[in-house]
Amino acid sequence: MNTETPPIDWLATGDLVLADRIVEGGTVAVAGGKIAGVFEAGESPSGPVVRDYSGRYILPGLVDTHVHASSVEPETIESSTGAAAAGGVTTIVDMPYDRAAPVMGIDRLREKVETVQAEAIVDVGLYGTMPKVDGVGVLDELVEGGVCAFKFSLFEYDAHRFPRIADGDLVAAFEKLSASGVPIVLHNELQEIVDYALAQLLDTPAENDPLAHGLSHPPVSETAASVKALDFAYWTGARLHLAHCTHPHTFRLIDVYRQLGADVSGETCAHYLVLSERDVAELGPIAKVNPPIRDEQAREDLWRALQDGRIATISTDHAPWPIEKKQSSMLRASPGAPGLETLLAAIFTEGEKRGVALPELLGYLTWRPAEIFGLGDRKGQLVVGMDADLTVFDARTPHRYDATQSLCSAKWSPFDGREFAGRVVATYVRGEIVFEDGRLVGEPGSGEWLRRTALADGS
Ligand SMILES: [Zn+2]
To answer: In the CATH hierarchy, which fold is given to the domain comprising 10-59+385-442?
Structure first.
């Protein structure tokens, strides 16, 4: 392996998780915030400081490309990136639907970059979006400004902050962005299907049924929306990454369009791989997310889709509402849940149950999201020259997650009280420790804003 090293700042020993295998008793050398060497057991050079993580996994820091750090009070870039550090996530990409004002132009992007530079504890990339009406004019300046991706929605949450973009505007945006390679991330639910189903359920006894949310957002509202977006990508050549896909059928459709030559992929979220309607029945609004968590069959088929290589990335859709927003009927409670702290532990635990090993899981959480979002030259792999973003995961003893101790603004979680097969014990961003033994040690402002630096991988 690589032996070229500039003066080494420090070394970490442990079980290194690479894309294709685990190097037991390996060593990572860090110099100037970059990975300076990756060594097999017994090959390690000497260094001034050795951090001994023997028996623990050392992974590249996770890259979570679906975070709502700025959408709802009192969550902030600081609290989300603190939770990210605790979860072993060293890069987040923050959604554009900010409560202050959505990122729909260069001035707002610059303002948000300043907030990131003042508050962030891990590194942060940003999404842009466009106004509901005649919005395509803002796209070029946001690409130029360095956004990692664009988020558009087929579903209206808020006419100004999180609008539904009409088909004509959407096709125009796909056309405009196709040459840039910057991915379009789409919220794929069809409004009329949801509105119709909701009208049947609201103000009936079913309104309080935890499973009513799933009935009000049936899989067809997601899959039919996906077909529409996939077809827009097919005709325009735009790079499309479908957000938070809940159902294996969506990934079949992505496959069909890939075979037709479209540049498309999809993410699922940790909660769709870990939870099922059974958990929703137990937890009620705490486990209400959009689109909804499906049945056990869908969850297991998602794991099969993952193992078949149909899913590109796993994200959190971290959306930590104040608990008051969850304290109403199932159909009226706000959808969304925190997820940054539990991402790695939850996916590792569920993967282990199904015989999916850590190197196999790694791509969904690290290098593939980094590549799609134009950060692959710096983030997502234990490779010489990349940023020294390291996550140390201890799977020697199980760990019970306690959401009341969360570093994000929400002290609740659908994963509260769950036993995971391990936990994150240390997190490093560009060679600096930000989280250690349950304590946040990174300072606000130590995280960097990440400008998109590479074209999409085209896969
Ligand atoms: Zn989201």
So the answer is: Urease, subunit C; domain 1 (2.30.40)
